[in-house]
Amino acid sequence: MRRSMKLAAVVLSGSLGIASLAACGAKSTDTASSGSGSSGGSALKVGMAYDIGGRGDQSFNDSAAKGLDDAKAQLGVDVAEQEAKTGEAEADKETRLSTLVSKGYNPIIAVGFVYQPAVEKVAKENPNVKFAIIDSSSNTQPSNVTSLTFSEQEGSYLAGVAAALKTKTKHVGFIGGVQSELIKKFEAGYKAGVASVDSKIQVETTYLSTPPDFSGFNDPGKGKEAAQGQLDKGADIIYSAAGSSGSGAIEAVSQKDGAWAIGVDADQAKQPALQKYKDHILTSMVKNVNVAVFQYIKAAKDGNPLTGVKNFDLKSDGVSLATTGGFIGDFKAKLDDATTAITSGATKVPTAPQN
């Protein structure tokens, strides 16, 4: 998910990114595995600290994990992964990163803006270790930290265009996992895309939790309840930027004739746990976290590490719309026009919701 994103409040550590913090049943494990083609201890050792939800969230964390898996398979790096814990303290994040440092992992990738304070602290204490953080940047970030950011608002704009062209009720919905500056970018782009087609279309907005409660990123039950509420009000298309909570929203939509879900972060119609709902997923706003992770690791392995803020926007294929199912094929030309308008600079997509 673009331009450099600054935390509205660093003390609020949380992420999705798309997405994906969370609550119930989050894992707390530390696993390590050797990269193919490594000899002895000579391979680059890459550590990854996941956001709450971790592997298996069918969304943000899984996309990051794919980038790590690709680097392991194609570049022969050694990897270690650590999962977040539900309700953990800031010190737990710092300990997780410090543990990877102590085991010789360099670089270390933190998945989600929830890690911003911890990354800054641990990076300052270990200036010879390279860190990357996904979905966050800060003026106080030390030089050994690279920000991997995305233009989520641009992909969400296209999702809004698709929703506006598909709706029959002229009433659509947006569900955000946690009411944060990051997720507001998804909301802003989506609403702007809808309005670009028909400003009279009503957009329902529901957030599942508010900081410091980040459970909205990992509670499918909350997602399902919120989606049902929007369906009951007349919405027939619902876009969820809510991590694994979005799976609950997709389930609710699948039970309503004529309704469509829009997925986020990954092509959710292709996710194993969501296959049974694929005929109800209109499209997904894909955020190519895997590409950013792989590029970061490859640059480090090649001895030319990425530095500063590396943004992945629509023009660079950092975000896109999935076409699985062919459900948006009827208005491909209009989506192409909207894409061209954004990539050419003719359309400036807002990063904050407009009233």
Q: Can you describe what's shown?
A:
With 355 residues, the protein is an alpha/beta fold. The protein has two domains: 166 residues, Rossmann fold, CATH 3.40.50; 163 residues, 3-Layer(aba) Sandwich (Rossmann fold). The chain has nine helices and 13 strands. A seven-stranded mixed β-sheet has the order 1-3-2-4-5-6-12, with helices on both faces. It has a six-stranded mixed β-sheet with strand order 8-7-9-10-11-13, with helices on both faces. β2, α1 and β3 form a beta-alpha-beta unit. The two termini are 23 Å apart. The N terminus is likely disordered.
Summarize the structure.
By secondary structure, the chain is α/β, with parallel strands linked by helices. Helix content is 33%, strand content 19%. The protein contains nine helices and 13 strands.
Low-confidence stretches: 1-30, 34-40
Give the overall form.
globular
Sheet bearing the most strands, described?
7 strands, mixed
Domains, number = 2
Give the SSE string: EEHEHEHEEHEHEHEHEEHEEH
CATH domain class of the largest domain: Alpha Beta
Task: For the largest sheet, list the strands in their spatial order.
Answer: 1-3-2-4-5-6-12
CATH homologous group name of the largest domain: Response regulator
Q: What is the name of the CATH architecture of the largest domain?
A: 3-Layer(aba) Sandwich
State the total count of DSSP E strands. Answer: 13
Kindly state the percentage of residues in helix. 25-40%
